[in-house]
Amino acid sequence: MNRHADTGRLALWTTVIAVFATLAYVGRFTAGEGPDEPLYLWSSAVAGAIQFAIFLLLVLLIARGRPLRDYLALRRPTSWGRAAAIALGVVVLVWLAGVLTQPFADPGEEQNLIPEGWDPSRAEPFAANFLVVALLAPVVEELLFRGLGYTLLEPLGRWPAIALTAVGFALAHGLVEGLPLLVLFGAGLAYMRSRVASVVPGIVVHMAFNTVVLLAAVDFFRAGGSS
Predict the structure, then answer these.
(1) b/e 5-26 (16+ beta carbons within 10 angstroms → b)
(2) What pTM does this model have?
(3) What ranges do the domains of the chain cover?
(4) For all residues of the chain together, what is the average pLDDT?
């Protein structure tokens, strides 16, 4: 393995995360309140798709010249059973942490992403944003952090790689109140990746988590998805 090349790739990856995290926090503290109910806006879906397309392009550029199956851990997990057990533990821990921190912090309100409720008259832009948040975002974020990032940091050891990718994942979201939960979620997914040598289970868990959070937040289940 060319250690100098990997050092350079790690520097590029770190720079990308630092730049996006800085932009996220600068935007949060200087731009004021964003648009109301962005998940019901077509512009949010377009902006989100562009953002994650840029992330994916950067992942591919940094990993260029390496076998993507190995470098991004896009392979069958060594054990689906172990992945399922870890996934259950991650979800339960994040849920418990959310319950315990609810009196002191409201990450959903801070992010200003969740609508007040389900509005069937704006189902089309919501569906477009749903695809971005629940499907595109998990794939790209897992490849960026638990795929490429973990591979580049793994020579430092399992736990440093887990911790650093989790912190980078959390900071890239630009949140303050939600930072501890994002670190915990990112660490759990990174631990799962380290135990099963694959990002695929993490993508599945991330998709499922985002899907349930979005649909529950807009009372979609109670509304029956219609009225």
Answers:
(1) eeeebbeebeebbeebbeeebe
(2) 0.91
(3) 3-223
(4) 89
